[in-house]
Amino acid sequence: xxxxxxxxxxxxxxxxxxxxxxxxxxxxxxxxxxxxxxxxxxxxxxxxxxxxxxxxxxxxxxxxxxxxxxxxxxxxxxxxxxxxxxxxxxxxxxxxxxxxxxxxxxxxxxxxxxxxxxxxxxxxxxxxxxxxxxxxxxxxxxxxxxxxxxxxxxxxxxxxxxxxxxxxxxxxxxxxxxxxxxxxxxxxxxxxxxxxxxxxxxxxxxxxxxxxxxxxxxxxxxxxxxxxxxxxxxxxxxxxxxxxxxxxxxxxxxxxxxxxxxxxxxxxxxxxxxxxxxxxxxxxxxxxxxxxxxxxxxxxxxxxxxxxxxxxxxxxxxxxxxxxxxxxxxxxxxxx
Amino acid sequence: xxxxxxxxxxxxxxxxxxxxxxxxxxxxxxxxxxxxxxxxxxxxxxxxxxxxxxxxxxxxxxxxxxxxxxxxxxxxxxxxxxxxxxxxxxxxxxxxxxxxxxxxxxxxxxxxxxxxxxxxxxxxxxxxxxxxxxxxxxxxxxxxxxxxxxxxxxxxxxxxxxxxxxxxxxxxxxxxxxxxxxxxxxxxxxxxxxxxxxxxxxxxxxxxxxxxxxxxxxxxxxxxxxxxxxxxxxxxxxxxxxxxxxxxxxxxxxxxxxxxxxxxxxxxxxxxxxxxxxxxxxxxxxxxxxxxxxxxxxxxxxxxxxxx
Lengths: 336, 308
Known about the structure:
Chain A is of the alpha/beta class. Chain A is built from 9 helices and 12 strands. Chain A is 28% helix and 24% strand. In chain A, helix 3 packs across helix 4, helix 4 packs across helix 5 and helix 5 runs parallel beside helix 6. In chain A, 45% of the residues are buried. Chain B folds into 2 domains: 72 residues, no CATH class; 219 residues, MetI-like (MetI-like fold). Chain B has 14 helices and no strands. In chain B, helix 2 runs antiparallel to helix 13. Chains A and B meet through helix 2 and helix 3 of A and helix 10, helix 11 and helix 14 of B.
């Protein structure tokens, strides 16, 4: 049904495990994700839901051992890139697909000047040598709002927000087709968050880059994304566009995420956090992994994993509450 | 930076005062009489008394130390009780031998240990890792004198590749250098491995990989420089071990260096000579430490900041 859409990234049935001494951590369990060209796709979920693992899988950067991609297909512009040789993968990293990491404090090499760190990615993927790369680096620094003359300084001489600008400059230096941003603003304070988000938005439009925005912040999703996938225990449990997810919420877990946000209109309203914790990924519950925490759980929920149920041609939910008759109407949970 | 280096040199003065004073006290309290050791057990009481007076040994320890230290300030390290040769002269003649030995040993240690440490870290939990760490374990457990004797037996006596004793040719320094370097090599390799293991799990290594930098380049360019700080620290400390080790190594290989001079002087209760050797070791160790601190600044820009 998605044949007309042009996909930049298509992940099918991805399974990733961390094989540790304490047991097999099933981080990603048959995840499907389609990112359309030029769109910004939000991936939202709790800590430990498998967001970062999914992102790292795309670039084959999972720490191994213990991490193993067990199964699945990862297609970049229709070409499978899973299991490519290191050499081929290195051509994709930083060039076709690049990544912004969560913590700018630790993601830059402390003993290299920032211009050398940015120039390095240009040097590897473009001809022209070091001098040309430095010239481009200075253009990139200006683009992200840093004076090029500071390029000779080291990461410890920059603030967190500035470091994240450096990381963004580095990620966009080779004009990647896909930018994976793994919680790019989580480690920054709120005013800087807004600046960095605006910067990313502008650059995305300017460069026409597709983006996978990983976050646990629904505000960021609303601000910057076109599509949203909600991830729980390594699977996409609800997916749709902003209107689908925000106004026609179907999955009880998505509802729980919204209820966990403070309500600015009714400040006396109590927060309703989702009860319980993420299930232990070494020992996932049978059936729907969310059922032990779900207010609407039924008998079947602990027995069988729910099928995808489509509300329209894209909005789907994996939940036993819904069937062909009631999915359109909704109203089974308090939201939507 | 220069200010920092100057400050460090000034701080050497109290160190030398402290070290010489402690050694002076110990030598005075230790059993055995320097005068008897010079004149022999059969010497007459009058002769002994005369020499004691001449050497100033009848004075209070503190006064003796004061006289010694005043001499030191004038650049006079005293004369040997035994040979009547100036301490500075004797040490000057022997210093090159020990310096050569130490430099060869530390070079052997560094050149071998850092690649071994990196290899062990990159190939963690493989047979290569186990082998490297086994060699390192041997290195820290085998006593210097035993290893020296074994190497002598095999390479000098059996194969005849190297001279058995003396310091006349450069070949004379190979076996002592290996003997002494092996110990330090082991220690440095272990530290390089563990700090490398820590560094390659850091976020910035993942960032470098996400840029498409080949893994080998990541290890040599991104990881190694970050992993070097602990390695340099230990290499610096090893110079101290090396100086201690030189005492044994020089004895085993019959090298006329300061280590052997010190042993002979201690046995003969030749106090000025012992003190002279100790001062040389102290200054050498301090200078090495200073060099290590300066190297830090070049490896890590964050440390450079603190110096200026």
